[in-house]
Design brief:
alpha+beta; five-stranded antiparallel β-sheet
Length: 663
């Protein structure tokens, strides 16, 4: 069976990369019939055509919508079918709604559900009264059970959602009021996208990259919270794990395919699993351990089964005082230094790059020369991570893509000095990275909420160290007052949210016992050296080969983000007229797309497009969509079906001529 769903063009990439998920659920009717994939269908003899109601929905917003054609996995058994044709084809003679309920659910659950259904059908407001729940408008019965907007006084959607999930009622087919023949599929992984249409008639085939199991739907009724699964590669096999929070507030991971918890012991806290190596951190009775799906590691790196945690914890960690913990941490660091150093012998080979990227001028601050960069005149801050995190940072630099937390806004989370960074060892990892802060603390807000941060604020701003006075030193008074009245005198994410617009580069604030530094501009924070012994010694990892790669990467989101609805990561490496620069794909407030030169801040294309693909950095080519037509293109123009080039000023006449010929 084929399902035709209307969605926004901006969702295409996500749907065909990971499959349908909750973020793409629903269309015009929202989720009145349960959270799932919504669409229209036809009867079998019409399945080669898009249902007319999908066309109608598409036409409501032709510039922003598209239609995705998906294939339903399996048959319709397990669906509630409020349509006589499909009910008889699926359930035979026992096709009534009552028959379906008793065939899908065990008797005790079926008795309860059917009682609720009978009550609703007996009401005057029910259009399914008098047994007419197979013809005409048949959506009311399902809406009564699943809608969060209607029938709040008599129905409990959470109750029915849990019931449907527990007994895997897979979805429903129904007819709405003017909606045509509709389907909702509750299990996202049972709907496979196979093609899409931007004109509502012709379809372009496309393959699904990865199908993630629908762990949220399957396990949500069992847990307080279920995360979207994370894919781990192990011996050539892809394994999916979802983090779950139990009813008592504890945490665990579940294998999304086998439905098995990785541990018989639940944890007090649990970090996100690293998809590269399957590692994560657990907290049990106030003690933190590194772990993987097979077990946890002690301070000497020895592996243990999760079932050992209660005994291990009580035998080895009872009556621990702060000095004892500190001593254990230092011993742990000493034990793993040798292992870390052996693995880091290959770090320079792993982080080296063959990209022929010439230097791009750093947009906001002049790039210091090597001698100045190596000196103490460029301030250093310190970031604690694990070994895998360090490898990624020294390969790609600090990047929003790797950001795990942003309690105080999106930025690079670091400590003010080595002493403060040591407080984070063992919590976030045992590797300390020295960061060179380009531009220093210029246009940073230093929140004087403690004696230490007050001292730092006074060193930078003198007597004008209160937050409002700081803002007035680098903003017009009107803007300074607006920012202060909007964001306040304490560090919070609101400052990060508006940092681009007002060029606020970062914050210094007290976080527990730690003086924290948070550059909002990722390109201000350049990873420089690494320490494996808790900050006693550092080894410089920033070499000549990586110099231009780090210092020429501009944080386009911070630099231009307030001007556009969406701005992508910079693409570096395309050679144009002998000069190499960087370009970022941008979505404007009118939902049109263009490319931005990150050096000049100027838009490259003279025309905005309905959609643009990512640029090939080797040849500067991409694909554009204009008035429903797709063209291969570069900055200088577009190509027709024969590969002949055209300038941009020809595109309107070319499209009009093409449309007339097609007509």
């Amino acid at each position: 069976m084929y399902i035709y769903s209307v969605t926004n063009k901006s969702s295409l990439e996500g749907i065909f990369t990971n499959g349908w998920s909750k973020q793409f659920a629903g269309d015009a009717e929202g989720v009145d019939y349960g959270v799932g994939v919504y669409g229209n269908i036809n009867y079998p003899y019409q399945e080669d055509k898009t249902p007319y109601k999908s066309i109608g929905r598409y036409k409501n917003n032709p510039s922003g919508n598209c239609i995705i054609k998906s294939k339903l996995v399996g048959d319709l058994k397990g669906f509630l079918l409020f349509d006589e044709y499909f009910a008889k084809k699926t359930y035979g003679e026992n096709y009534t709604i009552k028959d379906q309920v008793y065939s899908i659910l065990p008797k005790n659950a079926a008795d309860s559900l059917w009682k609720d259904m009978q009550w609703y059908m007996s009401q005057d407001t029910s259009r399914e009264g008098n047994g007419n729940h197979m013809n005409g408008r048949t959506s009311g019965l399902l809406q009564f059970m699943m809608s969060k907007r209607f029938h709040r006084d008599v129905a409990n959607p959470k109750k029915f959602e849990a019931l449907f999930a527990k007994y895997n009622i897979r979805g429903a087919i129904y007819t709405g009021n003017g909606d045509g023949l509709c389907i909702v599929v509750y299990n996202y992984d049972e709907v496979i996208p196979i093609a899409y249409s931007v004109d509502g008639h012709t379809y372009k085939q496309r393959s699904l990259k990865t199908l993630y199991p629908d762990s949220v739907r399957r396990f949500n009724h069992l847990y307080n919270k279920v995360d979207f699964p994370i894919a781990i590669q192990c011996d050539g096999e892809t394994i999916f794990f979802s983090r779950v929070q139990t009813k008592d507030g504890k945490w665990n991971y579940i294998d999304a395919k086998t439905n098995q918890l990785i541990s018989p012991i639940n944890f007090d806290s649990l970090t996100e699993i690293n998809p590269q190596n399957g590692m994560f951190d657990i907290e049990y009775n106030g003690v933190f351990y590194e772990a993987c799906p097979d077990g946890f590691y002690d301070e000497y790196g020895e592996g243990h089964e999760f079932s050992e945690l209660p005994t291990f914890n009580s035998d080895n960690n009872s009556d621990l005082n702060e000095n004892h913990i500190s001593k254990m941490l230092q011993e742990s660091i000493k034990k793993v230094i040798k292992e870390f150093k052996e693995q880091y012998k290959t770090l320079n080979e792993e982080v080296s790059t063959n990209d022929d990227v010439d230097e791009i001028q750093y947009f906001k601050y002049d790039v210091p020369d090597q001698t100045y960069f190596d000196s103490n005149d460029v301030p250093s801050i310190y970031h604690v991570t694990d070994m895998e995190g360090a490898k990624g940072i020294f390969k790609f630099g600090f990047d929003r893509e790797f950001l795990r937390t942003y309690v105080y806004g999106k930025g690079v989370y670091a400590a003010y000095d080595i002493k403060n960074a040591r407080d984070q060892l063992g919590i976030y990892g045992n590797v300390m990275i020295q960061i060179k802060l380009i531009g220093g603390y210029d246009r940073f807000i230093i929140f004087p909420t403690s004696d230490d941060t007050k001292r730092i604020a006074m060193q930078k701003y003198g007597r004008n160290y209160d937050v409002l006075s700081q803002l007035k030193t680098f903003l017009p008074e009107k803007d300074a007052l607006y920012v202060y009245n909007t964001c306040g005198h304490n560090s919070n994410h609101r400052y990060a949210d508006i940092s681009s617009k007002y060029h606020i580069r970062g914050a210094v604030y007290q976080w527990g016992q730690t003086i924290a530094v948070l550059p909002y501009d990722f390109s201000s924070a350049v990873p420089y050296a690494i320490s494996l012994d808790g900050g006693k010694t550092f080894e410089k990892k920033f070499n000549d080969e990586l110099w231009s790669r780090f210092l020429t990467s501009i944080d386009t989101i911070w630099m231009y983000g307030d001007k556009y609805a969406q701005i992508d990561k910079t693409i570096l490496g395309y050679n144009r007229d002998g000069e190499i620069t960087g370009y970022a794909r941008i979505k404007k407030s009118n939902s049109k797309w263009n490319y931005l030169d990150i050096q000049t801040g100027e838009e490259e294309l003279p025309i905005d497009f309905d959609s643009i693909t990512s640029m090939n950095p080797k040849n500067g080519e991409f694909q554009v969509e204009y008035q429903g037509k797709f063209f291969d293109a570069c900055f200088d123009g577009f190509y027709d079906d024969n590969g002949e080039g055209h300038t941009w000023d020809e595109i309107n006449s070319f499209v009009n001529s093409s449309q007339k010929n097609n007509f």
